[in-house]
Amino acid sequence: MNGNEHESKSLYEAIGGADALSRIVEAFYPKVQADPLIGPLFPPDIVPVMEKQKLFLTQFFGGPPLYSDQYGHPMMRARHMPFPITPERADAWLGCMKRALEESGLEPELQTLLLQRLKGPAYHFVNTPQ
User: Fold this and answer.
1) Mean pLDDT for the chain?
2) Which of 130, 129, 128, 114 is nearest to 24 (CA)?
3) Cβ(54)–Cβ(25) under 8 Å?
4) Does the keyword Transport apply (predicted)?
5) Can you tell me the distance from the alpha carbon of 44 to that of 90, in angstroms, rounded to the nearest whole number?
6) How far apart are CA 122 and CA 42, in angstroms?
7) d(CA 1, CA 82)
């Protein structure tokens, strides 16, 4: 697939939809849980978090509005305010996602597009100085 084909469809469609997104999320959260900076911010039972993340990323990458249909407007910055998110923690989150994307089997170009799309929100959630 060339760059023009990626531009003509949503990222959700380009990566292969729900199955690909599930693979990414399932590769991502064990990395998050093992990370000393961000793991402690997550509950021990990560399954509900993973389910919400699948719904949110489906919508975020241009698929059906599953998250909004179930939970209303995402308001992601507000939902992250109770947690001390530093620039270093945003970096750690993105690092976990980068490794999960590398394991996902997606084309490198798609991995880069997804990571670029996630960088803005990751740093937008920062609410605590270093």
Assistant:
1) 92
2) 114
3) yes
4) yes
5) 20
6) 16
7) 41
Are the C-beta atoms of residues 98 and 117 closer than 8 Å to each other?
Answer: no
Could you tell me how far CA 53 lies from the centroid of its own chain?
7
Residue of 6 and 120 predicted with greater confidence: 120
Phi/psi at 75 (nearest 5 deg)? 40, 50
Q: How far apart are the first and last CA of the chain?
A: 40
- DSSP assignment of 99-126 equals HHHHHTT--HHHHHHHHHHHHHHHHHT-
Which tens digits make up the pLDDT trace of 88-129?
Answer: 999 999 999 999 999 999 999 999 999 999 999 999 999 998
- Residues above pLDDT 70, as percent of the chain: 95
Cβ of 110: how many Cβ atoms within 10 Å?
18
